[in-house]
Specification:
The chain is α/β, with parallel strands linked by helices. The protein contains ten helices and 14 strands. Helix 1 packs antiparallel against helix 10, helix 4 packs parallel to helix 5 and helix 9 packs across helix 10.
Length: 337
């Protein structure tokens, strides 16, 4: 294993300047993140729970929509393919996407289906409770076919496909296999933020980005196993015929498993950079978004991972899902010089 090479500020700036030329299609589970912010100064007389006096409300894009928002914040051109319900939350998601200049022609409203919404109550910058409103049943056949026809067609229009699979029914095995084949056949990279249990679906993707828990499951290791070895990681990469496997390790950074030009194994570790961690919500979305922008503008996978790691270190300083701009990314590298 080797540590990732240092990325110069000049190289970061060179990549960032090309982000606006990158066109990314995001396929996956679109969500709405709603927040209620307030303070706690007493315990409820009805039950031993804190009473949060709400002083502010906000709504942000979540899931695949947050991935798209991260890409848009970096200046990339983005289109999103997914579903929402014919409800207030679905209209809100569409409005938030359009407000960021994200193309929504591939966002399909499904009658009778609820838009996935995650409601978080925050008191003094600490999450008190989360409530999920979601539908994860299989999509109607005609809706699924429409989504994946759009995804297949995107291979001739976009530079990168990013699959954000939260297991809410949008990513379907038979379709996503075909879509990956279409994009890779066109010479386009496919990046996947995976869902536990779906690893075989992503065969021949360019890279998938599981966390340790997901990777342990993907390696079919015994329950209770806490550590994934290099051999386990390279076995996943080989079995799925990936160009690379990136395992995100939280405070322990990230590890990239790939091959050298001569076919030998290459393991690169990138140390975590965050010092003040307030909330890891959406950090994985930021990681894969920056990687997609990096790969799309011509950076190699290691360079893209180094930029993604630095970006993740910035967004975890914020409470709730957040995005990073080019200026903030460049500034983060400048401070490290």
């Amino acid at each position: 294993m080797s540590d990732a090479p240092r990325l110069s500020i000049e190289r970061v700036q060179s990549c960032a300047q090309r982000f606006p030329a990158v066109n990314v299609t995001v396929l996956g589970d679109v969500m709405l993140d709603r927040y209620f912010w307030g303070d706690v100064d007493r315990i409820s007389p009805e039950a031993p729970v804190p009473v949060v006096r709400v002083t502010r409300r906000s709504a942000r894009l979540g899931g695949a929509a947050n991935v798209a928002a991260n890409l848009a914040a970096l200046g990339a051109r983005v289109s999103v393919i997914g579903v929402v319900g014919e409800d207030r939350e679905g209209r809100e998601v569409r409005h938030l996407l359009e407000d960021r200049g994200i193309a929504c022609q591939g966002l399909v409203s499904v009658p009778g289906r609820a838009t996935t919404e995650k409601v978080r109550i925050i008191a003094r910058n600490q999450q008190v409770v989360r409530a999920d409103f979601e539908a994860d049943e299989e999509l109607p056949g005609e809706v699924a076919e429409r989504l994946f026809e759009l995804a297949r067609a995107g291979s001739s229009q976009s530079d990168v496909l990013l699959v954000s699979d939260y297991g809410k029914g949008v990513v379907v095995e038979s379709h996503v296999r075909e879509v990956i084949g279409t994009w890779r056949g066109a010479g386009k990279p496919v990046l996947v933020d995976p869902h536990v249990g779906h690893f075989p679906w992503y065969r021949r993707a360019t890279v998938i980005t599981p966390n340790v828990k997901q990777a342990l499951h993907g390696a079919s290791l015994p329950p209770g196993t806490k550590r994934i070895t290099s051999a386990d990681a390279f076995r996943i990469r080989a079995e799925l015929e990936l160009d690379a496997l990136l395992i995100t390790r939280g405070e322990d950074g990230m590890s990239l498993y790939t091959l050298n030009g001569d076919g030998t194994q290459r393991e690169v570790h990138v140390s975590a950079v965050a010092r003040d961690v307030y909330d890891v919500t959406g950090a994985g979305d930021t990681v894969i978004s920056v990687m997609a922008a990096g790969v799309g503008c011509g950076a190699d996978l290691v360079e893209a991972v180094v930029m993604a790691n630095r970006a993740a270190g910035e967004v975890v300083k914020e409470v709730g899902t957040s995005t990073i701009t080019v200026d903030a990314l460049v500034s983060a590298f400048r401070r490290a010089d």
